Amino acid sequence: MILNIDYNKTEQAFTDLGIADFAQKYSQLKQTELFDLLETGKIGRAEFLSGIRGMTGPQISDEQIVSAWNAMLLDLPLRRLQILQQLQLHFDLFLLSNTNEIHEEAFLKTLKSLTGFDSLGVFFDKVYYSHRVGLRKPDAAIFRLIMEQNGLNPEKTLFVDDSPQHIEGAKVLGIQTILLEPGMTIEEHIFKPKN
User: Fold this and answer.
1) Angstrom distance (rounded) from CA 127 to CA 75
2) What is the pLDDT of residue 47?
């Protein structure tokens, strides 16, 4: 949602590396254990690369795997960061991201080149990355953790996400939600400027 993402690019990149059924292993809606373990920090880069190599064969290099895995990460629109800065003046903002150490390294590099900042933390009161917390959306435990740590009232908390299963996970706890459907962006459809 902050970063533009295209899951199809990673699917195609891994298909090109020889994993014909990659869409059954990883997508926006579901994933196999290897990806869950990476996104909850239970395995790191080396174990993930080894797991992928088990699907592709030993001839595939670490660089090829990382490049395919990062293919989904597109641009980081500056306008979204500006909106976050404006919202920060009036609201408590928290980032909850299902991510992993490989993606974090890549998107922070993009952020640094775009803004000079080393962390998305400058745009939020607190940042929760699944691989650092050990929990991931849509698990209710991650939502409960954030609510409790920050004294948030679910009825006065808005969760915006682009995955239906994450929205449902938040709704179970009474959190207010907005689903960003395909083609929607926060700058054009949610926090649009007044005319």
Assistant:
1) 20
2) 98
